[in-house]
Automatic annotation (TrEMBL):
Organism: Flavivirga eckloniae
InterPro entries according to UniProt: Beta-ketoacyl_synthase, Ketoacyl_synth_N, Thiolase-like
Residue ranges of domain Beta-ketoacyl synthase-like N-terminal in the record: 45-219
GO molecular function terms listed in the Swiss-Prot or TrEMBL record: 3-oxoacyl-[acyl-carrier-protein] synthase activity
Protein name (record): 3-oxoacyl-ACP synthase
Keyword Transferase set for record: yes
Superkingdom to which the source organism belongs: Bacteria
This protein's UniProt keywords: Transferase
Biological process (GO), any one: fatty acid biosynthetic process
One cellular component (GO) term of this entry: cytosol
Length: 354
């Protein structure tokens, strides 16, 4: 089977990641329990008349995909695969509110059409006039990993040569209110720099879109090779350390060869123990990195983790703001990413420098 490479990236997040010439050079700190994405100038990418009709999640996805395509010098791709946990929440709310307010009569279809989970993938395809494979995965916190796995299998089997893969989720006020009621979002406002010291239930929620051009053709500008990816709904009677070891063994990787471990810590005192088990145990002597203090927690937040790992491998720079410890390393060749949400939807992703 052919190897799979990340040839370009595009990111819209709570940091100024929309400019690929920067790599977390100017960190934005927050003190809140919900953080919004930093908007680029959408007019630079989307005609204003079209942008007005798009929800924020759609705009973020379209722009992030265009950033990735521009960096790869591509006008179109063979396939588009998107992952999203909640889809276009704001348009869903608009449509449901209209049903109630208008007594189920005289409804315009616009909000309904734009509320479906595959709206982002559809809008990207319309812009590119791409008539190829277009699929959206809605698999909670492994939605992005499911999309990557699908694209990886297609490229390995030479069913395509370039695929646009991404993850996108947006914040919606009423949904966040419900998450607060059930303690999924922290009750108190939390400083992003002190996220892991909060020791309370819930996470700081965020939003964003991260897209990648995957290909089985390596370029001089390629970021990384996707070696392997595995997902697990639950771990059953196994602990996360045993699953991590089995994942590495299956891919003929020794623990000592992992240069960086990227963890999805979100400050939830109940569930960060999964990450603590790895960081204080088997990978105690490995450089450890976290990222959700920068982007917040959302269903496809792990796509920001892949963006971070890809940038580290290409630039060979490790920003101080993401370090969990400080293990001297001369260069970064192999990165292991681990993510879970509330004890479920576990994923391991292995990246290697090209």
């Amino acid at each position: 089977m052919k190897p799979v490479y990340i040839n370009s990236v595009g990111s819209i997040s709570s940091q100024k990641t929309y400019d690929n010439s920067w790599f977390l050079d100017d960190i934005i700190s927050y003190e809140d329990n919900i953080i919004l994405a930093v908007d680029p100038n959408y007019k630079d990418y989307i005609p204003p008349a079209s942008a007005r009709r798009m929800a924020k999640g759609v705009k973020m996805g379209v722009v992030a995909s265009k950033i990735a395509l521009n960096e790869a010098n591509l006008q179109t791709v063979d396939a588009i695969i998107t992952g999203t946990g909640m889809g276009c929440l704001n348009d869903s709310k608009k449509f449901l509110s209209a049903i109630i307010d208008n007594g189920e009569q005289f409804l315009t279809p616009t909000s309904f059409i734009q509320s479906t989970h595959n709206t982002v993938g559809g809008q990207i395809a319309l812009g590119l006039q791409c008539k190829g494979y277009n699929f959206t995965y809605v698999q909670a916190s492994i939605s992005f990993e499911s999309a990557v796995l699908d694209g990886k299998l297609m490229l390995e089997n030479d069913e395509a040569s370039t695929i646009l893969v991404g993850g996108v989720d947006e914040i919606e006020e009423y949904t966040c209110t419900l998450h607060k009621l059930i303690n999924h979002i922290k009750e108190e406002k939390t400083s992003s720099t002190d996220l892991l010291q909060s020791k309370t239930e819930g996470a700081v929620f965020g939003e964003g879109a991260n897209f990648f051009v995957l290909s089985n053709l390596k370029q001089d500008s390629s970021y990384a090779q996707i070696v392997a990816i595995s997902t697990y709904n639950t771990l059953g009677n196994s602990n996360v350390t045993d699953v991590a070891k089995a994942f590495l063994k299956e891919n003929n990787i020794d623990i000592e060869t992992i240069d960086i471990l990227v963890l999805g810590n979100n400050g939830d005192v109940t569930y960060d123990s999964f990450y603590d088990e790895l960081s204080s145990g088997t990978f105690n002597n490995t450089q450890q990195v976290y990222y959700k203090h920068l982007c917040g927690e959302f269903n496809t937040a792990s796509s920001f983790g892949v963006w971070l790992a890809s940038k580290i491998l290409k630039t060979q720079k490790l920003p101080e703001t993401v370090k969990l410890n400080d293990i001297p390393t001369s260069n970064y060749k192999t990165i292991l990413l681990y993510n879970q949400y509330r004890g479920e939807s576990h994923s391991f992703t292995l990246l290697r420098r090209c």
